[in-house]
Each structure stands twice: as structure tokens, then as C-alpha cells.
Amino acid sequence: MAWFTESDLRRLAGERSFDRGLGYRDAVGSIAQLPDGVVASVAGTDSYRVRLRDFDGRLGGDCSCPYGREGAFCKHCVAVGLRILSAAPREAKPAPRSDVRTFLETMDRLELVELIWQQAQDDPVLYQRLRLQAATASAQPDVSVLQDQVSLLQVDWLDFDDEDDYVSRANSVLDALHRLLPDHVASAQQMLRAVVTHVGAAASVCEGAADMVNDAVDAAWGLYLETCQVAPPDPAELGQWLAYLRLNTEVSQVSLGEIVDLLGETGLAAYKASLDEARDRQPDLWRVRRLREELVREVGDTDELVEVLAEELSYPHAYVRIAVVLHEADRVDEAIDWLQRGLRSVDSRDGRASELVERLVELYQAVGRDADAVELLETRFTASPNEGTYRQWRKAAERIGKWPPLREQAHRILRERTERGEAFAAGTLARILVEEDEIDAAWEIVQRYRCDEPTRLAVADRRATTHPADVIAIYRPLVDTAIAVGNRNGYTRAAQLLTTLRGLHSRSGADAAFQADVRGLKGAHRRKRALMAILADHGL
What we know:
By secondary structure, the chain is mostly helical. Among the domains are: 6-92, no CATH class; 468-539, no CATH class. It has helices at 6-22, 66-69, 75-86, 89-92, 97-106, 109-122, 124-135, 143-151, 163-179, 185-204, 211-230, 235-248, 260-281, 286-299, 302-309, 316-328, 332-345, 353-366, 370-383, 387-399, 403-419, 425-435, 439-448, 453-463, 472-485, 488-507, 511-524, 529-537, and strands at residues 28-34, 37-43, 47-55, 58-63. It has a four-stranded antiparallel β-sheet with strand order 1-2-3-4. A hairpin with a 3-residue loop joins β2 (37-43) and β3 (47-55). α1 (6-22) crosses α3. The chain starts with 5 loop residues before the first helix and ends with a helix.
């Protein structure tokens, strides 16, 4: 008999995953018994490995699918469990742990050796484990075996299905290297560098999420640092290796700050020299710039950091980053200079300049240059008027009591652009007028000029407070547009608009006109049963 019930599967998976698992029962491959449960494969988006375990009568499970890797009891686990429950008792029952162990204890030593040896012929993971155990069993370990196993961790691509076995092999190598400590720390340290390099590279070429591979990188790096406490490595060699590792892999676990003391001046110089060589070979490589920046932030000064950041000024944010560094160093005038340079480097209409303007206004005001802040925002708004710059300009001008005449200037700019038919000018002006409670003026804009729908509705919503009849003509065409979409979302939108229109007609004393409109609309669309049902749900 199985050690669990269908209720256990449902409880662990939850209703959603359990229901999905029902559809995967036929995707379950062969089920194999293990001492503590079963293992099986399930075909899904990929082929996943499922293991169900017997924890003293309690069910547990894990799966290699993305959801299962998060620790969830997934639909694939459910499918395997359901197959076990539907199978014959002999197939469903996991092998009793105690019986097998007792049997092994009764076997002759040579028989047991032969059994294990025969299994190892077809099980590469077991063979590697035995080989590593044998290589580290004596006082003089067979280093060549360990080196061979380390080299086998170097891969060009790691398939999703191979990730579990790869991680098992990596962990077996780490266990073997750990057994070398502390007597053979130098050998272990060299090989651990190779493990970190190979497994770190594997994480970059893994088809799956690589969570388990990254866990192996964590373990290897931690063990390497442990050996460094016992036997500090040559600083120059460490610096060169670290540069190679970080230039050629995506190993995020290895941070410079963690080993600055181990590197010392000699190691840091070697690390920097390697990064400089990489820069000379590939000056535009983003990773090299990032590592050089990290190095300077760790051990350099402000001028060095500015120099590194200034090597790449092809985008406006680069100037902001330099300004932030200088501002933090209380070098505000220099920060302002870099922001001004950044503004000169971009077109005044470039939206990316907004961050430069915002930072520069902030620094101008911090040093008492409020007039310069207002002038900058005036120039910016004149070149590319929008609500964000308008608000900044208003706020800056109000600080020094200069806003009333500038407000007239800003509105004049927008009205002139609106008259010329420039895109977005009318909508921008209408929204600004609504924000400033100039509802009549905003209403005039949306009536005379073309504005986008959200702007027209925003103005209409405010106009409806005092003139409900005026805005009926804004909302009514949108009903037909929504119905024309031809799906439930469109019908629901139409019903919502009609609900709003019902209130507007009621406040205008035109209930009869609304009812007549709805009757006509329902007659025209009577064959749209979904629409009729949604209108009924809204009381229409």
C-alpha cells in the first residue's frame, strides 16, 4: 500500500495544482523505488524528475520543474502520486528501508563489493563518488584523480535534464576536496579555484534556472575562502585569477569587497592590471567598465571614480552618475558643471534630459541659485512643454515669488502651439487647466481642439459637476465604440458608460430621453446575448 492518500496530495499541492495534476497522469514515465520513496519522470514543457519521499509515514516531494524548485509540491508531484495510488499495491509500495539494510548486513563482504561494483558500471554518479572516496581514503591522496574529476566539471552547455547529475558530481568533488583539509590545503585550494571557475561558467550556460548550480558555486566559494584562512594564497595569483573569473563568468557570489584584505596592495595591483588589459582589448565592453568601477569604489578616491565613469558618456544618465559622486563628496560646483555638460550633449527635446534637469534644479536651489533653476526650467518648457516640467517650473518660481507672470507665459506658449495644431499641445493645456481648477477654460479647449480620450473624459468628469447636460455628447459616442469591440470587456465598458450617462440624464431632467436611447440601442443589438446579459446585470 502507498504511504499517503489522495487527500494528502490535495493538501500539499492545493486545489489549483491538484486539478492540474489530474491532467498529467498519462505523462508519468516509469516509477522506480528508492529506500525512502520513489522517483519518476514526468513529461511537461520539458522532462521533469519527481521524487516522492516517505518521512515516517508523511508524504514529501520535490520536482525539477521551475515551480518545484521553489519548494512547491507541484502538479507533476500530484501526477506521480495519483499514478502510485492507481497502481497495483506491489508497484505502489516503496521498498522498506529496514529490510534492505538488514539484508545488506547479512551479505558476504565480497558479494557486497561485487554488487556495488556491478552497479557502478552503469551509474556514473555512483562510480565518481566511489572513485573520489578511494582517491582520498589514504594519507597520500591521489591528486590526479581529483584533478580529472574537477576538469570534467567544465562544460560548454548544460541541458535542463543534466543539471541534477551535474550538481551531484560537483558536490561529490567538493566533499572530496573538503576531506583534503587541513593536511593538503594547498592542493585543495588550487583545485577549488578551478571548481569555482568551471561551475560558475556552467551556471552561465545552463538551460534551466541554474538555482542548484549557483548553490554549488556558493559552496565552492565558501570552501575556497575557508582554505584561504588556513593558507593565504599568493596575492598576485589571486588577483589575476579573480579578474579572469569575473571577466569570463557571471559568478555573482564572488565580490571584491569580500577578499580585499586577502589581495592586499600586490593582489589589487594584479587585479587592476588584468582589468586594464581587458579594457585595452575591448574598450566598449560593459563588464570591464563595471568591474573597474567596482574596484575604484572599493579602494580608489573620488577623482579616480569620476575618471572611470567619464570613459562612457554616450547617454545622459552617465553625467548624472558623475554628479551624484561629486555631490556626495561635497563638490557641488563640479557636480553642477557635469550636469550642465550633460544638458549640452543632448537635444533639448530628448526625454532623457529630464533627469539631468531635475538634478540640476535640485543643486541650483541647494546653493541658492534659484533664479538659475527657474531660467533652466523656462528654457526646458519652451523647447518641450509638458505637465512635468510645468509643475517643476511653477514650484521653482513660487519659491522666489515669480510665478504669476511666468504662468501667463507658459499658457501663452501652450495656446500658440495649440493654435498651430501641434500634437499633444491641446491635451497638455487642458490637463493643466483642470489641475488648476480652470474647468470652463479646459472645457473650451476640448470642445475646440482635438484631445485624446482620457483628457476629454477628465475634463468632462469635472464639467459634469455643474453642467451635466454638456458632457452627454462626450460620453455617448464612446458607448458605440465599446460595443464595436465585440467582446465581454467591450460590453462591460459600454455598460459602465451607460451607467454614467444615466446619472447625467437624471441630473439634467432627461430620464425619458435616456430610456429611449437605451431601448433603441438594445433593439439594434438584440442578437448580442452577452451584451444583453451584461446590460441587465447593470440594471439597464
